[in-house]
Write a sequence for this structure.
């Protein structure tokens, strides 16, 4: 979901060094960096100074230089703790003092441009707008902690410290002037620690989950909660009430750092060995359980001890990725459930070349600290440049990232179109024109991305972009930042903005945006009176309140919206799903009608953890066309990293509560089923592909799970499959190319197998089959057995269902030693999913369904390659194993014979497979000699030529030479002189004596002497070339 794109920028730290006094260089080096909770500000701290930075623009706003006497009295700076509202910071010093500083903001801007000519034009970057506000750092007071400090964190009103001697937890008010503002709890009295000698060395508090994680000097990690008397769940620790710590150990050794992901309820523990352990929080009554581990295989087997320990790790604010900084191997980024997105360690050999001192991007060899900026478009990294054990000056970098639009707004069209966001633009995959939709070839060299820059007038003031949404046809894009929104027309290449800035500033978008035909549906929060409403705008009209088509008032905050066919789903903060019918007319008029309200109380415990909601019909997917579809639809929820389906129970015929929009559906009206435990995003196929009526695709970080024909009824017959043309999914960049005629490929059933009748034409997608399709997942009991898993070595971005292709992104890294810069580049990568589905169908004994499904893709030029992958995969898995009736290789061969590609696929697979597997392959498909004869009989000379290589390996030269002569004679009869030359070269390579070549020449001469019209006496240049080639070969022998 996140990829590095471009070159890192190094920030100047000259202001943090005392150039006039070399003796002070050591005390001027950066010891730590810490971002504020909203990440728009951060502090860099040297041993003697504090620097306050803004993220946009990235510059120092204010600083405090501590005097020598102050350092002598209170000690040097060690660590920083921000107050959650960013109005104060606490500095931990080496002499166990807490230094409290206030952050005072002023409306006046720190940087303003003044030009003699008022008409002078200048452009500011994203988020820079009018420039940063003036901010000052003011010292308030110092607090002595006699027990010594090891680490600290904070809640809204309390600073929480771990002390050294005795080991204890102290809670101090951010305003120490309060009476009784301090609480102390000895660790020995908590009955939490496994060893009384343990001391807490790092602690993190997560407000949204009301949990803390403590790491001790023994390398253990503890799951900690605070319970307040009279309340059932965990509460925020506060000095105003008695704090009662409770918890347990969930990680036993080598823990160094921790980061909490509240969006997916995950805890990441970095260790000394470099492995990151990710734990899942199932509930608050039991300790976290291990979910998965993150390991860099390139160095994990080579490192020992703590030489490459985890120095820092940080989840993105949306929870979809984690950045990990290592002591020696630089940076790595993983998705939430373990998909490796990028790693600088892949280039270790290049970085450690003959001139490692030329490397300017030192973060690739070691990181001290890191954090994500607002919107997670930038990663701020502090690295330490050094040689051996000697550390030198720190370097500070910002690394640019591109992310999927799904991270901020999980919408089906965003997943379908592969929409990406960067700091200043949108990357749209394959917006190259409608002519590509019906092509059957993929051109990997074509331009993959269309770059659409955000409008400067909007992005300078409203950065970062919070939502991005694309229309179903890929022609219209809407974006929303801090205030208002803007939309883009990909046909005219123009943005449309609000003409009245006061109207733009008056509201902010909540829960996303969706396109319905020519209408943009926007849920809004009106800032003046804190009210909420849904607005409908026409993309053809100006953006102005006077042109709003329709307004629907909401009583609660809209948390998420999406479309399911003609119905709008609005999920609000009261934990209720509202379903509206969209009534539109041809004159760009529309209105919303409430049809149903469904309470999710008892199912969803935290509103913020709901990432996506969809309705699902076993026959139409998420395309709802009538109120009856809504009433009977299942509800799919992506909550807390789990994909859950709510299935309505059968109701009483006299119960009309479903038709009453004012009645909430109780919990007992639905059965709850978990479809997938680890789910980063999902996508529902918009249309069917022959007998694959519906498909649900789930990304789990390592690949894709596919659930096909989920809960489909038993009366789905082959004759009910529609012959309507398929609504094309987003295509890849292509070049026009059509499949060769069936007569050129040969004929199906070459091996004598037949599954159902032969289709009338190559373009026919549906055979005249009778009966009912058995391809379905009838119940959730069959879910695991019928799940089709597609492992991937890249991260999937879009599923092009009508082309049988998964498109994703692979991270590439290059380094030029002369420049010293590391360049990161995103490269699109594709993977055919046909063979995975076909193998599953054949293994399940669904031969007719496999043939019918495959015929939907027979028109593509890469269809034969997909069949070859299927055969090769099954062959390698079954060779050398006596599987008996469980073997599916015979079924695969039978399946291949239903297509004219069979003979080509078999020989191509054999030539790319080890010779040791040939006996097993040809024991099933038949003798290669017989297949060679079939090719000759069908006139498939090129395919027969490929079989010659197999025959030459498996039989004596005398026989192979005769077969070659027969094929050469056939090629001359067909006027295929290029093939003749290839056969002559082949004869030369297999016969060093030249005898076979002499026999071939005699055969050709006899043909010429018989008065053949193809005699070389004619002016046919092709024949002359063939004769000259044979003569030159004979001379060499």
């Amino acid at each position: 979901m996140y990829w590095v794109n471009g070159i890192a920028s190094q920030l100047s730290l000259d202001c943090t060094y005392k150039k006039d006094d070399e003796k002070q260089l050591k005390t001027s080096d950066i010891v730590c960096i810490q971002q504020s909770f909203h990440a728009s500000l951060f502090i860099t701290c040297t041993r003697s100074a504090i620097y306050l930075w803004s993220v946009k623009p990235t510059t120092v706003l204010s600083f405090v230089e501590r005097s020598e006497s102050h350092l002598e009295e209170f000690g040097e700076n060690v660590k920083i703790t921000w107050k959650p509202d960013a109005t104060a910071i606490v500095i931990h010093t080496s002499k166990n003092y807490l230094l409290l500083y206030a952050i005072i903001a002023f409306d006046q801007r720190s940087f303003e441009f003044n030009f003699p000519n008022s008409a002078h034009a200048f452009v500011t970057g994203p988020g820079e707008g009018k420039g940063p506000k003036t901010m000052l750092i003011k010292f308030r007071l110092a607090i002595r902690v006699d027990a010594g400090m090891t680490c600290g964190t904070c809640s809204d009103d309390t600073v929480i410290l771990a002390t050294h001697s005795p080991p204890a937890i102290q809670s101090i008010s951010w305003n120490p002037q309060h009476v009784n503002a301090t609480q102390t709890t000895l660790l020995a009295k908590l009955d939490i620690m496994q060893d009384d000698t343990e001391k807490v060395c790092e602690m993190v508090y997560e407000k949204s989950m009301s949990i803390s994680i403590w790491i001790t000097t023994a390398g253990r990690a503890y799951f900690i909660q605070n319970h307040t008397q009279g309340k059932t769940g965990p509460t925020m620790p506060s000095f105003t009430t008695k704090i009662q710590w409770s918890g347990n150990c969930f990680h036993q050794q080598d823990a160094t750092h921790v980061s909490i992901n509240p969006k997916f309820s995950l805890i990441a523990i970095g260790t000394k060995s470099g492995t990151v352990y990710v734990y899942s929080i199932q509930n608050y009554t039991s300790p976290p359980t291990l979910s998965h581990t993150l390991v860099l295989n390139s160095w994990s087997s080579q490192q020992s001890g703590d030489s490459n320990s985890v120095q820092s790790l940080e989840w993105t604010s949306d929870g979809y990725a984690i950045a990990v900084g290592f002591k020696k191997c630089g940076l790595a980024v993983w998705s939430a459930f373990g998909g490796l997105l990028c790693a600088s360690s892949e280039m270790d050999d290049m970085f450690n070349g003959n001139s490692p001192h030329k490397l300017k991007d030192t973060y690739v060899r070691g990181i001290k600290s890191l954090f994500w900026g607002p919107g997670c478009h930038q990663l701020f990294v502090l690295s330490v440049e050094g040689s051996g054990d000697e550390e030198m000056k720190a370097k500070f970098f910002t690394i640019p990232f591109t992310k999927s639009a799904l991270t901020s707004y999980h919408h089906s069209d965003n997943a379908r179109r592969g929409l990406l966001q960067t700091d200043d633009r949108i990357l749209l995959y394959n917006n190259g024109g409608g002519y590509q939709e019906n092509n059957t070839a993929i051109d990997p060299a074509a331009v993959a991305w269309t770059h659409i820059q955000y409008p400067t007038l909007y992005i300078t003031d409203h950065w970062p972009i919070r939502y991005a949404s694309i229309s179903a046809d890929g022609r219209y894009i809407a974006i929303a930042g801090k205030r208002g929104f803007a939309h883009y027309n990909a046909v005219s290449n123009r943005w449309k903005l609000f003409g009245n800035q006061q109207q733009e500033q008056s509201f902010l978008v909540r829960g996303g945006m969706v396109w319905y035909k020519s209408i943009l549906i926007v849920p809004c929060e009106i800032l003046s009176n804190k009210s909420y409403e849904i607005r409908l705008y026409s993309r053809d009209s100006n953006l102005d309140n006077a042109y709003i088509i329709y307004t629907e008032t909401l009583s609660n905050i809209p948390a998420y919206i999406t479309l399911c066919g003609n119905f709008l789903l609005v999920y609000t903060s009261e934990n209720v799903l509202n379903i509206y019918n969209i009534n539109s007319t041809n004159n760009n008029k529309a209105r919303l009608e409430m049809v149903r309200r469904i309470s999710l109380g008892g199912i969803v415990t935290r509103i913020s953890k709901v990432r996506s909601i969809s309705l699902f019909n076993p026959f139409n997917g998420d395309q709802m066309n009538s109120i009856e579809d809504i009433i009977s639809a299942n509800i799919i929820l992506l909550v807390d990293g789990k994909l859950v389906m709510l299935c309505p129970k059968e109701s009483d015929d006299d119960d009309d509560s479903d038709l009453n929009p004012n009645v909430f559906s109780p919990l007992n009206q639905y059965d709850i089923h978990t479809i997938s435990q680890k789910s980063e995003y999902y996508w529902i196929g918009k249309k069917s592909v022959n007998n694959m009526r519906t498909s649900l695709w789930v990304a789990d970080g390592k690949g894709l799970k596919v659930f096909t024909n989920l809960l489909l009824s038993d009366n789905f017959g082959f004759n009910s499959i529609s012959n309507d043309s398929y609504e094309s999914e987003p295509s890849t960049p292509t070049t026009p190319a059509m499949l060769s005629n069936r007569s050129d490929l040969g004929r199906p059933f070459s091996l004598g197998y037949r599954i159902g009748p032969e289709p009338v034409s190559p373009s026919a997608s549906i055979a005249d089959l009778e009966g009912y399709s058995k391809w379905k997942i009838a119940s959730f009991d069959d879910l695991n057995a019928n799940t089709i898993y597609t492992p991937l070595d890249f991260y999937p971005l879009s599923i092009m269902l009508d082309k049988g292709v998964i498109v994703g992104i692979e991270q590439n890294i290059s380094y030029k030693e002369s420049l010293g810069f590391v360049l990161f580049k995103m490269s699109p990568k594709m993977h055919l999913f046909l063979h995975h589905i076909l193998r599953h169908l054949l293994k399940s004994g669904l031969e007719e369904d496999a043939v019918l499904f495959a015929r939907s893709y027979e028109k593509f030029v890469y269809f034969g390659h997909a069949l070859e992958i299927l055969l090769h995969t099954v062959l390698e898995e079954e060779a050398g194993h006596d599987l008996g009736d469980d073997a599916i290789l015979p079924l695969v061969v039978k399946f291949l014979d239903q297509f004219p590609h069979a003979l080509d696929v078999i020989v191509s697979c054999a030539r790319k497979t080890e010779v040791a597997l040939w006996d097993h392959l040809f024991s099933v498909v038949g003798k290669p000699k017989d297949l060679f004869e079939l090719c000759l009989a069908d006139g498939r000379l090129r395919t027969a030529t490929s079989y010659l290589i197999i025959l030459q390996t498996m039989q004596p030269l005398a026989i192979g030479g005769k077969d070659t002569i027969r094929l050469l004679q056939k090629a001359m009869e067909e006027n295929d002189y290029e093939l003749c030359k290839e056969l002559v070269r082949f004869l030369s390579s297999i016969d060093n004596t030249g005898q076979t070549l002499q026999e071939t020449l005699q055969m050709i001469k006899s043909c010429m002497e018989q008065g053949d019209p193809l005699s070389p006496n004619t002016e046919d240049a092709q024949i002359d070339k063939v004769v000259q080639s044979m003569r030159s070969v004979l001379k060499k022998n």
Remarks:
- The first helix runs from residue 68 to 74.
- The chain is about 20% helix and 35% strand.
